[in-house]
Write a structure and sequence with these properties.
The chain has 5 helices and no strands. It has 129 residues and is mainly α. It starts with a helix and ends with a helix.
Length: 129
């Protein structure tokens, strides 16, 4: 199987750009989802670069399964992002109202920051690999 980690990291960077743009545009639901996607894809890139096949969408688990444990606070940041994988996209993700009504600038700003921290961790780990 070819090593596609570079493609996954490039997509993670692109998703982070989208999260930042969505945050600026006031599309906070999409910013939160894109931030989750950036983190998930970056961690998958790290697994692939280290020769592991990886599946799933839970960034917390993906980080936790790395051979060298990341800092606990990074796991907590991933845990926040995991909450945006489904509810930020679907009208039935919340008790009532469309998803976008449940997310504001505080959510998306934090999500972008958390994703950026995870991407920075992955970039550093890749540089050391």
């Amino acid at each position: 199987m070819p090593n596609r980690s570079g493609d996954w990291l490039a997509q993670a960077e692109h998703d982070l750009d989208q999260a930042e743009a969505s945050h600026r545009d006031g599309r906070h639901d999409w910013a939160c989802f894109a931030a989750h996607q950036a983190a998930e894809k970056a961690v998958k890139a790290l697994h692939m670069a280290q020769g592991r096949e990886v599946w799933g969408h839970v960034a917390t688990r993906l980080l936790s399964e790395l051979p060298e444990a990341p800092p606990a606070e990074l796991i907590e940041r991933a845990r926040v992002l995991d909450n945006y994988y489904v509810p930020a996209r679907y009208p039935n993700g919340h008790v009532e109202g469309p998803a976008y009504e449940h997310y504001g600038s505080l959510h998306s700003s934090q999500a972008v920051d958390h994703a950026r921290d995870i991407l920075n961790f992955v970039r550093q780990a890749l540089a050391e690999t």
